[in-house]
Design a protein that fits this description.
This protein has about 400 residues and is of the alpha+beta class. It has helices at about 5-15, 25, 40-45, 110-150, 155-185, 190-195, 390-404, and strands at about 30, 35-40, 50-55, 55-70, 75-80, 85-90, 95-100, 105-110, 210-215, 220-225, 235, 240-245, 250-255, 270, 280-290, 300-305, 315-335, 340, 345-350, 355-360, 360-365, 370-375, 380-385. The protein has 4 domains: about 5-60 and about 330-404, conserved putative lor/sdh protein from methanococcus maripaludis s2 fold (Beta Barrel), CATH 2.40.420; about 60-70 and about 245-325, Beta Barrel (Elongation Factor Tu (Ef-tu), domain 3); about 75-110 and about 215-245, RNA polymerase II/Efflux pump adaptor protein, barrel-sandwich hybrid domain (OB fold (Dihydrolipoamide Acetyltransferase, E2P)); about 110-210.
Length: about 400
């Protein structure tokens, strides 16, 4: 039995035994025909081999631009207090990552305290007016009974009726004023239950804590500016924090005038930064500026890039590539199908269930995922995409073995 047949038998036994990924040198071999590799189906599955047809498609050209990683302005907030007050406790620090609704700072809201006092006075006034209305109503009912038996003059009845109507109008006016103040209390964060719990009886006083506000984070993000200390007097005109959500970032790049007609909103883009030279971040073009910088002859293009792990940092320099169709059709294969063998571009063409033939090809334009094939391949032929490196390794191993 030949050496390669023995190796193939050992590989098959390993698969039957459930040993996982067997070494490529034992499971695969080069056929007697030069440049032809045989790979059993079990081995194809083991190395994750995938194929794709060589097909015609419109070529894409990469428009390149340089830019800066910037915050998403729709998720960028300067946090100010709801009213003038004195800071009790600061709950976060610069650089902290916070979640939506998390407490940022607690403070005694002076304006809220004044508003609660006004509300309580209005409630007390309403109780007095309601009592007066009730008395006026009883007097009116007695007057109506007396009028029926002609015990009082109609003029006196009409006076008492007008007094009752005035009492009713006073109650309604006070209720409207209370509703106005309640709306203001809601803006400071008090709920209906909070307002209902405010004490109005003369022998009781409202909770002193009612005027203490907690300023929450409007959304999840990172504290990138911090300017507050306990005991400090703060007001609406002072930003205490700046909060940025970096789960999505904007990459603002400079697009040259010659490329304006090619780049449109909605196109996919690819972003790379020096910190991660082997990684590409995918995004989409959201906006191409309508204004041109007269000095640089460029316009800003805004790319929205998902950044769930926070790897893209604000103010990073970035290279942006935007694929645009040129209208020309060409035969293409996936970039992963192309291997460099002794300085030549090769692909592996599937010629049978287990057989793959090395084919030298001439490559033209390269896109982000596809490459143009100028010579060496026919449309409709199937090439190895994922896993082609393993087949190249087999060829190299066999060539070294033949030399010895």
């Amino acid at each position: 039995m030949s050496h390669w047949m023995m190796g193939l038998g050992l590989f098959s036994a390993a698969l039957l035994a459930g040993c996982g990924s067997a070494p490529v040198a034992d499971e695969l071999h080069q056929d007697e025909g030069e440049g032809v590799v045989e790979v059993p189906k079990e081995a194809q599955t083991n190395i994750g081999l995938e194929t794709a047809p060589a097909q015609k498609r419109k070529l894409e050209r990469m428009v390149t631009a340089t830019g800066i990683v910037s915050p998403d302005q729709t998720r960028y907030a300067h946090i100010t207090p709801l009213g003038r007050g004195i800071v009790d406790t600061v709950h976060v620090n610069l650089g902290d990552r916070v979640r939506q609704g998390q407490a940022l700072v607690s403070y005694d809201n002076i304006e809220l305290g004044d508003l609660i006092g006004e509300y309580l006075n209005l409630r007390a006034g309403l109780e007095k007016l309601e009592a007066e209305r009730e008395v006026a109503g009883k007097i009116l009912e007695r007057s109506r009974s007396l009028l029926e038996v002609e015990a009082i003059a109609r003029q006196e009845f009409e006076v008492r009726e007008a007094q009752h109507q005035q009492a009713v109008a006073s109650v309604r006016s006070q209720q409207a004023e209370i509703a106005r103040v309640e709306e203001k209390l809601h803006r400071f964060g008090l709920t209906d239950q909070d307002i209902a719990e405010l004490k109005t009886a003369p022998h009781e006083s409202p909770h002193r804590t009612a005027s203490h506000n907690v300023l929450p984070a409007p959304f999840g993000g990172i504290i990138v500016m911090y300017d507050v200390s306990p005991g400090e007097l703060v007001d609406r005109d002072k930003a205490l924090f700046t909060l940025v959500d970096t789960s999505n970032v904007w990459v603002l790049a400079d697009l040259y005038e010659k490329d304006f007609g090619r780049v449109k909103a909605g196109r996919e883009c690819f972003v790379s930064v020096a910190s991660y030279p082997d990684d590409v971040f995918r995004g989409n073009v959201a906006y191409v500026s309508d204004f041109l910088d007269p000095a640089s002859r460029t316009a800003k293009v805004r790319c929205v890039v998902p950044n769930p792990e926070g790897r893209l940092k604000l103010e990073m320099f970035a290279d942006v590539r935007i694929p645009v169709e040129e209208g020309k059709e060409a035969l293409t294969v996936p970039l992963a199908a192309i291997q460099d063998a002794a300085g030549e571009n090769v692909v592996f063409v599937k010629t049978g269930d287990d057989r793959f033939e090395k084919r030298i090809v001439e490559i033209g334009e390269r896109g982000e995922e596809w490459a143009e094939v100028l010579r060496g391949l026919n449309g409709g032929e199937t090439v190895v995409a994922k896993g082609s490196f393993h087949l190249k390794s087999i060829l190299l191993r066999e060539q070294i073995g033949d030399e010895h």
